[in-house]
Amino acid sequence: xxxxxxxxxxxxxxxxxxxxxxxxxxxxxxGMIAASAGLSVPRAAMALHDYxxxxxxxxxxxxxxxxxxxxxxxxxxxxxxxxx
Length: 84
What we know:
The chain is mainly alpha-helical. The chain has one domain.
């Protein structure tokens, strides 16, 4: 029984670490969007989530693409109507 508890504890820890990492990734991408367009953080977050929804992608996947420079922030902004 104790071994199962240890495994369950490790699983919870792994899931928690993954969730924190995903949140940090999204937060970093939101900051990039906000800085590149002069938007508030909430508006930049909305743009990221709008883009994700419109393109059937997870926000974390879009955030990773932005951070790795595979996708420009302008793409997210254009899709959400936030571009100049």
